[in-house]
Amino acid sequence: MTEQTTPKPIKILMLEDSPDDVTIIExxxxxxxxxxxxxxxxxxxxxxDAILRFKPxxxxxxxxxxxxxxxxxxxxxxxELGDTPFILVSGTASDEFAAACIREGADDYISKSDLTNLxxxxxxxxxxxxxxxxxxxxxxxxxxxxxxxxxxxKALDRYAYTVSHTLRGPLTTVKGLLNLAEQTHDINxxxxxxxMMQTSINKLDTILMRLLEQARNANAEINVQRIDWxxxxxxxxxxxxxxxxxxxxxxxxxxxxAVEFNSDPERIAALLSHIIGNTFVHRSSExxxxxxxxxxxxxxxxxxxxxxKDNGKGIPPEYLSKVFDMFFKxxxxxxxxxxxxxxxxxxxxxxxxxxxVTSRINVGxxxxxxxxNKRIREAATTED
Length: 384
Known about the structure:
The chain has helices spanning 19-31, 44-54, 70-81, 95-103, 118-182, 187-219, 229-239, 265-281, 340-350, 374-383, and strands at 10-15, 36-41, 58-61, 64-65, 68-69, 86-90, 108-111, 225-226, 249-256, 262-263, 291-299, 303-310, 354-360, 364-372. By secondary structure, it is α/β, with parallel strands linked by helices. It folds into three domains: 10-116, Response regulator (Rossmann fold, 3-Layer(aba) Sandwich); 156-219, Orthogonal Bundle (Helix Hairpins), CATH 1.10.287; 225-383, 2-Layer Sandwich (Heat Shock Protein 90), CATH 3.30.565. A hairpin with a 3-residue loop joins strand 13 (354-360) and strand 14 (364-372). The longest helix has 65 residues, at 118-182. The protein is elongated, with a radius of gyration of 35 Å.
């Protein structure tokens, strides 16, 4: 058997200076079996205070009141309460005045000489206002969704153009080299063409692997585990050895990680590989220049702060706003495909964090990352 809940009483604010009229109105409401609680006022200040404190579901207003009238009361109601129904209940207002009030936003006019329809008018006005509010909220939600889809569509257009343009580069190169190879009979020339084709194919493979990494980051669930910072950083730096085969970069680590930190180790390892890898690639080429990469990690119950600094070439100020763009490279002559920082930001966003880059030419670059402590935050949310 389904339980029936008792309807919540309607809060009625009566703007009325006649106690006898209040008594008559209440008798009509009880006869109409309307569940309600009321507050009755007859002065402007009392009315404004009641609107703010009592927050009525409907206002029943007489026309002529001490010091002000129903038209002013309507303006106050619309300013302070917006969607709250306002019904003019009067014995002195003319039909013309009542019609003017309705044009200005009143929901109905009921004459005190005939209160038969008052209860049904209250119910209808409340229902109408609720439907109008729901309609506006629905339209607002649809507009937001539409705007969001427009942004996504434009991003997909840019993404498709950028990816196709970048993929076509090495493919076109390979195609041209194959045509040359077909016309070449010299073994040394063929070897040279083969090496150039291999370079283009390797570049294409790297691009595809990075794009697959981005797709996995966007779609795979976040695997929350305790992060062992020492082991993770050792693995990352060890995996980047091919970028610094002569061990010419001095790596310094400072860890303050006594507070346990939980996040996705695979994503964080990929994130730091991109960031630290950039410091290796963009180290200074000047002789007698000692290349240094500093990695600092600080953990708290709420987050981890990771700061990676280098003393490399630095990034020109006009390029700082573009460093996270897909396939963007400050120096086109340097190795890499311009996806490192793009992927780093994608990972940070997926983890709910923030990333920032500051840099000075011939001084170095600093990347600051803040990541939320996943498990602790989720536990706190559950407790709340």
